[in-house]
Structures are given as C-alpha cells and as structure tokens.
C-alpha cells in the first residue's frame, strides 16, 4: 500500500514538472530525407567539377543564355497573337428572320412557330430564332419566336397580328 502511494506521488510530481516543458521550437526536426546536402559544382575534377554536369560547349553549358531563348528561332511571345478585344463566352447566337421573309413564306397569314420556320427551311432546328423588322407585312401573323426586335413587334401589331416570345 505504501509503495502504491509512493508511485502515485512520484507520477504526480513528474507530470507537474513536465507540464511547463512541452514541445518547443528547438525540438522540431525536418522529416528524414527532406534536406539533402547541397552539391558544390565546379570545384575541381574530383566531384561534379570542371563542366559541372552541363556537358561541353553549346548554349546550355553557358551561364548568360536565358531559359526562354530558342536558338534564334522566332520566340514564342512574338509568334502568339496579341490580345485584341473580348469574346463573351455566354453570348447567344440567334438565327435571324426578317419580316420580308415571313411575308414571302406565309402569304396567307396565320400561325407562325419555330417548327413552321424549320419546315419551310428558313431556320435550323436547334438554335434560337429572332424576328427582325426589315421589310413590310400586310397580313396578320401570330408569330412565336425566341426574340423580336422593336420594329418587328410594331409592324406585326400594326398588321393585326400578335407576338409571343419564348
């Protein structure tokens, strides 16, 4: 019993004294193999001396040649085109149909949808369609397309037709 009490007090004293002695900066060491010795090149022929692993002659054996140098060939930075303008990646490319074309394709008036325009060969099926106001129209057309210009809306409404966007 006395021995048990003695070991408990010894453990308590050890933890009390070790409490202030945690891990310090000077205890830290790099991982094994993380730091390798620096090779001293060009210090005689005993080890990595003379040409220092660069071979003999040529531009790569010399010090002054920049890494981007291409041996007299036109450099890459001069071959590439310069930046001019901005290309919007989110741009929507519409297929345009003028009112003059609608008047030709649908002389009797009536309902005009994207499917009707595809059937007549005026547009392709997958791209969005925009109706522009170039030309005149006398018949009432009820046109549904993805977009309309302001003048196309006015001319279709003036002829007695209607516009459905979407």
Protein described:
- The chain is of the alpha/beta class and 166 residues long.
- Helix content is 27%, strand content 13%.
- It is built from five helices and six strands; from the N terminus they run ααβαβαβββαβ.
- The strands form two sheets. A three-stranded parallel sheet has the order 1-3-5. Strands 2-4-6 form a three-stranded parallel sheet.
- The radius of gyration is 41 Å and the shape is elongated.
- The chain starts with a helix and ends with a strand.
In short:
The chain is of the alpha/beta class and 166 residues long. It contains five helices and six strands. The longest helix is centred in the first third of the chain and has 17 residues, at 2-18.
Gyration radius, in Å? 41 Å
Q: Please trace the helix and strand order, writing H or E for each element.
A: HHEHEHEEEHE
- What is the makeup of the main sheet? 3 strands, parallel
Alpha-beta classification? alpha/beta
Low-confidence residue ranges: none
Oligomer category: single chain
What is the arithmetic mean of pLDDT?
A: 87
């Amino acid at each position: 019993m006395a021995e048990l009490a003695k070991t408990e007090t010894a453990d308590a004293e050890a933890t009390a004294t070790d409490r202030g002695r945690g891990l310090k900066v000077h205890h830290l060491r790099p991982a094994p193999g993380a730091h390798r010795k620096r090779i001293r090149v060009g210090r005689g022929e005993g080890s990595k001396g003379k040409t220092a692993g660069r071979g003999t002659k040529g531009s790569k054996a010399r010090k002054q040649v920049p890494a981007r140098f291409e041996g007299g060939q036109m450099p890459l930075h001069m071959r590439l085109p310069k930046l001019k303008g901005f290309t919007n990646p989110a741009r929507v490319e519409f297929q345009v149909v003028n009112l003059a074309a609608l008047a030709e394709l649908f002389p009797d008036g009536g309902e005009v949808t994207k499917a009707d325009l595809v059937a007549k060969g005026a547009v392709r099926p997958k791209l969005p369609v925009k109706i522009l106001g170039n030309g005149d129209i006398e018949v009432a057309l009820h046109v549904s397309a993805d977009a309309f210009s302001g003048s196309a809306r006015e001319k279709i409404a003036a002829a007695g037709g209607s516009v459905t966007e979407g």
